[in-house]
Write a structure and sequence with these properties.
The protein has 346 residues and is α/β, with parallel strands linked by helices. It is built from 15 helices and 11 strands. Helix 8 packs across helix 11 and helix 12 (227-234) packs parallel to helix 13 (255-268). The relative contact order is 0.13. The structure holds S-adenosylmethionine. The site of S-adenosylmethionine has 23 residues, from strand 2 and helix 2.
Length: 346
């Protein structure tokens, strides 16, 4: 996540990548190495990576607008950066087809960028009126499809599971009542329905009120962009593409995606062995493909949160590739298992 600001003179926005110092340190960047930024966004992390040493970078974003923004960086580093307008779940294909060697680090800064959030036409924000879109890649079902077409019971499940909204049933009911008379077409319309159904009174979180639409908007966005599937499909296979000592760094912004990242990282580092509720014991600790270079996840500093309030919920987690050989048939690669992890959240 990053922040964009428009200067008081009406000048162009600029973007502040979250936990930049921490990302650069933890990636342990070295000249000659190859890195992947799977969520290019406004390019803040990518630019800093390229500035910090003579490395090469594959920059991925499924939003074509981000790739357009990348032109400037391409001009500055014509030989060292390559762009791919794809999803990060396609990292294996991108690397197989274009690189044919392993990389030394992968960064995923999850969620949406300020460029997306702050553009009313994209429909991500309940604070700006716009069409109910919310698609990062500009294809597939829209937020309008979800609120106008999904059965009430399924709408409630989505809002509960992906938004962790306690009042999901009421919100779904009110949306369905409303749409009988009038199609819900704008972010303000949806936000007003949500506000009227659940109000503000119990929305307290750490002493602060959060907007009643926050959770429902998050849920719809996660659903239509298949955000959890993206994480779940890429991580179990990533080891094959990372050199020994290479790192995978992920910044999450809400508890659902953070739990998934933690669970998969715990599996890949062997932390879940014998204690996993999802799988039987595995016997050989030498098979672990990754280790934790840091015991804990990192959080933004207080001064970063003050400067960039959107960073406040960020958590940075990192794993480091060991020498263990990647073997496709290990239990941990069973997608079935991750379906079970996900089903616990449903
Ligand atoms: C939080 S922003 C990244 C900001 C970036 N690190 C920077 O410094 O400017 C997330 C970006 O990742 C993209 N994105 C999210 N999920 C994606 C996925 N599964 N595949 C590819 N891009 C994705 C979004 O379109 C968005 O541009």
């Amino acid at each position: 996540m990053m922040i964009s600001r428009t200067s008081s003179t009406g000048g162009p926005s600029h973007h502040v990548p979250v936990m930049l110092r921490e990302v650069l340190d933890i990636l342990a960047l070295r000249g000659g190495n190859v890195y992947v930024d799977g969520t290019f966004g406004g390019g803040g992390h990518s630019k800093a990576i390229l500035d910090s040493c003579q490395c090469n970078l594959l920059a991925i974003d499924r939003d074509i607008k981000s790739i357009e923004i990348g032109k400037e960086l391409k001009e500055k580093f014509p030989k060292r950066i390559k762009f791919y307008n794809q999803s990060f779940s396609e990292i294996p294909d991108i690397l197989d087809q274009n690189l044919n060697k392993k990389v030394d680090g992968v960064l995923l800064d999850l969620g949406i960028s300020s460029l997306q959030l702050d553009n009313p036409k994209r429909g991500f924000s309940f604070q700006k009126d716009g069409p109910l879109d919310m698609r990062m890649a500009n294809k597939g079902i829209t937020a309008s499809d979800v609120v106008n077409k999904l059965k009430e019971e399924n709408l409630a499940i989505v809002i509960r599971d992906f938004g962790e909204e306690r009042h999901s049933k009421i919100v779904a009911k009110k949306i369905c009542e409303h749409r009988k008379n009038k199609k819900i077409e704008s972010t303000y319309q949806l936000s007003e329905i949500i506000e009227k159904s659940i109000g503000w009174s119990y929305r307290k979180q750490k002493g602060k009120y959060i907007h009643p639409s926050t959770r429902t908007f998050q849920a719809i966005r996660i659903l239509i962009n298949q955000e959890l599937e993206e994480i779940i499909s890429v991580l179990p296979n990533i080891a094959r593409y990372i050199n020994t000592e290479g790192r995978v760094v992920i910044i999450t912004f809400h508890s659902i995606e953070d739990r998934i990242v933690k669970n998969i990282f715990d599996d890949l580092t062997g932390q879940n062995m014998g204690v996993s509720r999802y799988y039987p014991e595995r016997s050989n600790i030498d098979e672990k493909l990754f280790m934790y270079p840091n015991k804990k996840f990192l959080k933004p500093t207080n001064s970063e949160i003050l400067e960039n309030p959107r960073s406040r919920s960020a958590k940075l987690r990192c794993i480091q590739r060991t020498k263990a050989i990647f073997r496709e048939n290990l239990d941990i690669y069973s997608t079935n298992k991750y379906d079970k992890i996900l089903s616990e959240l449903r």
